[in-house]
Amino acid sequence: MTPSHLLTHNLGFPRIGSNRELKRALESFWKGQSTADSLLHTASQIRIQNWTLQKQAGIQLIPSNDFSLYDQVLDMSCLLGNIPQRFPHTQPTVDLTLYFSIARGATADCCHPQGIAASEMTKWFDTNYHYIVPELSPTTTFKIATSKPFDEFNEALALGIRTKPVLLGPLTYLHLSKSQDPHFDKLSLLPKLLPTYTEILSRLAQLGAEWIQIDEPILVLDLDPTWKNSFPPTYQTIRQSIPNTKILLATYFGDLRDNAPIALSLPIDALHLDLARAPHQLDDLLPSIPANLSLSLGVVDGRNIWRNDYTQSLSLIQRALQSLGPDRLLIAPSCSLLHSPISLRHETKLDPQIKSWLAFAEEKLHEITALAQIATHQAPATLLQENQSILQSRRNHPHTYRPEVRSRLATLRPEDARRHSPFPIRQQHQRAALHLTPFPTTTIGSFPQTPEIRQARLQLKNGQITQEAYNTFIRQKIAECIRIQEDLGIDVLVHGEFERNDMVEYFGELLDGFIFTQNGWVQSYGSRCVKPPIIYGDVHRPHPMTVEWTTYAQSLTSRPVKGMLTGPVTILQWSFVRDDIPRSDTARQIALAIRDEVIDLEKAGIRIIQIDEPAFREGLPLRQADRPHYLQWAIEAFRIASSPVADSTQIHTHMCYSEFNDIIESIGQLDADVISIETSRSNMELLDAFTRYRYPNEIGPGVWDIHSPRVPTVEEMTQLLEKAASLIPPHNLWVNPDCGLKTRNWPEVQASLKNMVTAAHQLRQKHTPTQNSK
Ligand code: GLN
Ligand code: ZN
Fold first, then answer.
1. Any idea of the CA torsion for 296, 297, 300, 304, to the nearest 10 degrees?
2. CA atoms within 13 A on the CB side of 591
3. Which of 139, 186, 444, 576 is in the most buried spot, having the most CB atoms within 10 Å?
4. Cα–Cα distance between 111 and 115 in angstroms, integer?
5. Ligand 1 mutation pick, 128, 444, 549, max ligand atoms within 8 A of CB
6. What is the C-alpha separation between 149 and 763, in angstroms, rounded?
7. How far is CA 623 from CA 145, 178, 223, 627, in A?
8. CB of 706 closer than 8 Å to CB of 744
């Protein structure tokens, strides 16, 4: 019997280029240092490289239109001609200037003295990728305005590759869009959108596309019935427009759950399932797959960097094979590979054993081909054996199982995640110990990271200065920073975080269980990339991480200096996390490491410790039903980290967003003594939550927007604080800016802080008339 064959495909490939060529080309174009032609040339080189690579790896259906100069959602808006009114456009097509001005805003000119605000950017589902939010209004119209998917299809065809064009589905497009009027029914635009959408599809079919991939990731969300019910008629229309082209509908980032019956009823040729996030859904769905539908099995995890466990994937593939046969199966990554780094090829410094456990985008392509071949007996048995022995080496590695860490976790008691006394008692102790005035002033931790500081760090890295010289330099910066804060009259000081490159990397480098790549970049938005650490083993803190800097700062002043730590949930959230133990276990391990640091800081005489959790909200699962479980372990992790201190030691936390309404109770359960939150950009919108829920502890809503270089006036800040004081008991209010001082320069920071301190003084006088402000 000739072995049958399984079709392999890919949903999307990273587009930043293997050496971040796109980033460089974009930034030089934006600065006016290179031409549009040269940018477009780089872009084309990257596409050609990506297609060739995928072909060489044996992928049969290779995507096109997955490339983007900035963002694939913005590309869709431009393709559909959905350009926000405020951007001047007279041409029927979208050029580069218009495209980038939607993404990045336009600078002032004679017609627009204020410039034009960019479209909003927001997180793509639960990833760290950010897309440009399409804008809709009742008058929005659609008309094909770019030729991007057609050009890219032809470009690949010229190389001899008949690609599978990828388009964001019409319903996901509308769902992710935003309208100024929150009550506007976005679905009312569907009848206007569909004709343009089907025109795009027909043109792709005419060009010779055999398969088209339509992404509808909203099918893994909780959907209102009106959205669910829109799927069948939409896909009937789509089907009719391209009767002879195969449609692959892609879902990812979760399971279909209650949306499964709808997805299975659609007139499509193949349905893609994310079996990395949700392997269980295969068995649930197999009995009800209609006879004419193929399944695309997303078995290789597109969101993480671990080598695939072939035995696990093959067991899924075998079950599908038995039920559907080889002709109705495709093998793929779980989602677009956009979310993984590009290739291990460029990693020359990783420990070779640990490196063998990893698979970046390029390696994942080979895994897909290998799995398809092994499943149909077309690959040598050694391929599977080799995979198994590598995974075995990971399981047996002493760093992936540290008995002392495991036994500490196993013996954690509920009281380890609880402060000694409830907040009202702690508050009294802290007032007695810290002698703070009402409306105490503080900052969020960092102070300007000047070119001088970055240069010193680089010199240390390159061996141009000694560790000792670097330490002396940092101490000097700390001393200057303390003096400036004292002169400004700030009440609770910080050391300035000059020794930190990044709030997660700094701690990751000092903890066991983390490794760092040289080139493991992943696109965050536009030209911005991040290089997340990899948590590969049990996390453990070999030495104190911040005590020396913090105690040095404290030795220079009689005012309290806050110790600054990054919280366990944020460290977890901004890293690639191991997949061999639950995320919640890794969170607890990190929590114990931070707890040790908290204990050491307290022992060293630090009376206030801030544990930042800016990523706390991002960890929230997409589905409502999954949220309580996450919140439970995330809150626990924070409390394990923050609870070992005396009642008189004050724990602060910080979060940088204002969409709080739905999780405000959970924030309360963190039981930090003080929380500072970013609010100024939303004009204290956050405070709406407090009309419904009485936040029990102290709180510092940010009174100035760090993202703008403008120095806010005393009046502005006083007004914001008055607004806050009308909803929060004044004795629980702190005065602080939003986060991000490190991105500003000293003159702005000093001028703004001076006004902030004055605003606090005015408030003190008004609300505590008997007490003299200092
Ligand atoms: N302490 C950090 C700082 O001030 C907090 C950063 C953040 O919130 N993302 O920079
Ligand atoms: Zn922040």
1. 90
2. 25
3. 444
4. 9
5. 444
6. 58
7. 35, 20, 10, 7
8. yes
Strand order in the sheet with 650-655: 562-566, 608-612, 650-655, 674-677, 698-701
CB distance 73 to 44 below 8 Å = no
CB < 8 Å & 24+ apart, contacts of 34-41: 36/96, 39/69, 39/96
Residue 676 CA to ligand 2 center (angstroms) comes to 9
Rounded to whole angstroms, how far apart are CA atoms 279 and 282? 6
**Which contiguous run of DSSP H or E holds residue 247?**
strand 246-250
Active site residue 89: no
pLDDT surpasses 80 at 520? yes
Q: Are 341 and 18 in contact (CB under 8 A)?
A: no
Active-site residue, from 130, 707, 731, 767: 707
Pocket lining: 566 vs ligand 1, CB cutoff 6 Å:
no
The whole-angstrom separation of Cα 24 and Cα 39 is: 9
Cβ atoms 668, 616 nearer than 8 A: no
Taking the centre of ligand 2 as the mean of its atom positions, its distance from the CA of residue 703, in whole angstroms, is 13
Ligand 1 atom having least distance to the Cα of 443 = 4
pLDDT tens digits, 70-121? 999 999 999 999 999 999 888 889 999 999 999 999 887 777 777 888 999 9
Average pLDDT (284-308) is 98
Residue 684 has pLDDT above 80, yes or no: no
Both tokens assigned to 663: 């999780």
What is the number of the ligand 1 atom nearest to the C-alpha of 654? 8
- In whole angstroms, what is the distance from residue 771 CA to residue 99 CA? 57
pLDDT at position 2 over 60:
no
Residue 652: CB within 6 Å of ligand 1? no
Instruction: Please give the full DSSP string across 185-246, using - where no structure is assigned.
Output: -GGGGHHHHHHHHHHHHHHHHHHT-SEEEEE-GGGGS---HHHHHHHHHHHHHHHHHSTTSE
Residue 483 has a CB neighbour count (10 Å cut-off) of: 12
Which residues neighbour 269 within 8 Å (Cβ) at sequence distance 6 or greater?
211, 246, 247, 248, 292, 293, 294
For the chain, give the percent of residues with pLDDT over 70. 98
